[in-house]
Amino acid sequence: MGKSKAMMALLTKHRSAELPEKPRRTAPNLAKNNSLIGIAYRPGLRAAGTVRNITGNRQIYGEGEDADAFFKVVSGVVRVCTFLSDGRRQIDAFHVSGDVFGLETGKAYSLSAEAVCASTVISYRRSDLARFEESNKALSRQLLFYAMRGLARAQAHSVLLGRRTAIEKVAAFIIDWAAYSPNSNVVTLAMSRQDIADYLGLTIETVSRTFSHLEREAFIEVTTARQITLKDRRGLRDLNN
Amino acid sequence: MGKSKAMMALLTKHRSAELPEKPRRTAPNLAKNNSLIGIAYRPGLRAAGTVRNITGNRQIYGEGEDADAFFKVVSGVVRVCTFLSDGRRQIDAFHVSGDVFGLETGKAYSLSAEAVCASTVISYRRSDLARFEESNKALSRQLLFYAMRGLARAQAHSVLLGRRTAIEKVAAFIIDWAAYSPNSNVVTLAMSRQDIADYLGLTIETVSRTFSHLEREAFIEVTTARQITLKDRRGLRDLNN
DNA sequence: CGAATCTTTGATAAGGATCAACGCGCGTGG
DNA sequence: CCACGCGCGTTGATCCTTATCAAAGATTCG
To answer: Rounded to two decimals, what is the model's pTM?
Structure first.
């Protein structure tokens, strides 16, 4: 499939054994707009994409590689991130079922994508896409939708990174993530503290301390490291105005 | 044109008199991809968009307003930003000639857009667009291009906000902005220190101090507040690895 | 020239990073 | 089955970067 060479080398301080893989959280409702790229689901239709399973903490593609395909998440969670040469990492987004990632204007990927936990994605080759696009104008509209939504999310993320305190960042993160939890008050986190820290522009220690702080203040209960119970959803939301 | 009501109210601490408007920096090369939405330039062609002049520090649209149009910068500089209820502001991007902004998936704008200095933009009504799209499939490809480029920029910005120090942020900003300066070593800044601070997730004081620091270290010379001369471009770039 | 705004600089405070150590959970192997 | 080791997470002590508070230059414009 992809051309994955000696790419795992980057994952120095973030490597880890495969995650145990908890019960997967459900898809965020994409409403009706989700249909087109979903055609690959329908058996009988000429497969527009290739299904691919990725184990946890494995790279899907690396920055600089030939961007010959983009992807749609079927299940699991994917993180899209940048590495600085000194090991610092910034996670731009976590993608869950229904999300599209890997859209590029240029020849090469400008970021890396990795599975947070065991995940399934569908890859769509850009070359195939050109053919499809001719016949199906809805497709480019679909892609535009995904690109614009990604843009809106990235912009919201910028505010978080640039103008929020640690407490606000973590509170916002929990609330966002809670939206993907079937049981509205029990939030299962798919990612490690390091992932959360790199997403929020904090250190792992600050994230941990902030969770403890929010627990002391009775906003949440940290049942296990990966499971949070919301005790005061409104209060949590109020932390971000 | 737009429906600008009592929207200027937001601009409490960032308001200011019109800027003097220096010689405009040139457009970033968009290569060939720039053609389609540029059709409005061609006289004789049914106008696809409406030209609009905006004076400095005036709002083009506000967060929450009906997103009935998107825009392309002809000249000047536009900032796209978010306000928090307590006055904190985050600038997501500065747009210059050739850039498209205001693309939205939803009904309302999720951000505000304001002219940094006297600027000219073309607005394209989304309703008109639908008609165009039918006849011209290149258009949706164009829009996709702009959306994806915006996404890539937003992602690069996230790294800056989340994982860079003040010095790295300012150095990166100067280098980025230098790309838009005709004379490669004299950089004319269209925006205030407050704008830069809000773009980089810093305070105005830190930005100012960092400029001074970079000058002391002989990377730049701060000729006037709005004009920087690059003394050591490579060194400046090395600050970001 | 003087008012208003913007920018710079200084002194101090605070939020988060860093350094360090310990605990917990889990899988492995004796 | 228990002990051990290892990754991960939590907590503590301290440091450092950047924010905040304050005031003095610059710059612009009426």
So the answer is: 0.85
Rounded-to-integer distance, Cα B164 and Cα B169, Å? 6
Report, in ranges, which bases of strand D sit under 7 Å from a protein C-beta: 7-13, 17-22, 27-29
Judging contacts by C-beta atoms under 8 Å, the chain A residues touching residue B200 are 162
Q: Which of A73, A57, A65 is nearest to A15 (CA)?
A: A57
Which residue is closest to D18 in terms of CA–C1' distance? B206
**Chain B residues whose beta carbon lies within 8 Å of the beta carbon of residue A82:** 155-156, 158-159
Rounded to whole angstroms, how far apart are CA atoms B67 and A148?
13
B169 in A contact zone (CB under 8 Å): no
CA dist B65 and B69 (Å) reads 11
Distances (CA, A) of B75 to B27, B54, B116, B124, B153: 8, 10, 11, 16, 20
B202 close to B165: Cβ distance less than 8 angstroms: no
A154, closest residue in chain B (CA to CA): B154
Q: Is residue A118 within 8 Å of residue A62, measured between CB atoms?
A: no
- Calpha distance A98→A73 (Å, rounded): 5
A197 CA – C23 C1', rounded, Å: 21
Count CB neighbours of B170 within 10 A: 27
State which of A22-26, A47-51, A89-93 shows the largest mean pLDDT: A89-93
Residue B70 phi, psi dihedral angles, 5° rounding: -125, 175
> Which residue type occupies A6?
A
- DSSP secondary structure letter of residue B62: -
The model's pLDDT over B53-84, given as tens digits with 9 standing for 90+, comes to: 999 999 999 999 999 999 999 999 999 999 99
